[in-house]
Design a protein that fits this description.
By secondary structure, the chain is of the alpha+beta class. The chain folds into 2 domains: 1-31; 33-95, High potential iron-sulphur protein (High-Potential Iron-Sulfur Protein, Chain A, Irregular). It has helices spanning 3-31, 40-44, and strands at residues 33-34, 71-74, 77-83. A hairpin with a 2-residue loop joins β2 (71-74) and β3 (77-83). The longest helix has 29 residues, at 3-31. The radius of gyration is 20 Å and the shape is globular. The relative contact order is 0.18. It binds iron/sulfur cluster (SF4). Iron/sulfur cluster binds at residues 47, 58, 61, 63-64, 74, 76, 82, 86-88, 90-91. Iron/sulfur cluster (SF4) binds at residues 47, 58, 61, 63-64, 74, 76, 82, 86-88, 90-91.
Length: 95
């Protein structure tokens, strides 16, 4: 590879990398917004960030997804994150 070609290649690689990184961040931000209490689905399901029922929380609900983290995706709230300590009327024990 000549010097010129290598320089062009590196420039191209750097540009692609930045593009991919920015794309990833945008995707992350739009797909991982914490659910708001005034969200229509949250209201309908009486979702709360802090469960008032002992032994029932998003962390042990069958609809929770993803790895153990404070905020995780839930099958009932597509594109949103629910609190591990949260709760809603659709709670169902994880089998
Ligand atoms: S269905 Fe309700 S209780 Fe279960 S994880 Fe989702 S928000 Fe939490």
């Amino acid at each position: 590879m000549s010097n010129v070609n290598r320089r062009d290649f590196l420039k191209l690689s750097g540009t692609s990398l930045i593009g991919m990184t920015l794309g990833g961040v945008t995707l992350r931000a739009s797909a991982q917004e914490q659910v708001k209490l005034d969200d229509p689905t949250a209201k309908a399901l009486q979702y709360t960030h802090e469960s008032a029922i002992e032994g029932q929380a998003c962390s042990n609900c069958m609809h929770i997804q993803g790895d153990a983290a404070d905020w995780r995706p839930c099958a009932l709230f597509p594109g949103k994150l629910v609190n591990n300590n949260g709760w809603c009327a659709a709670w169902s024990k994880k089998p």
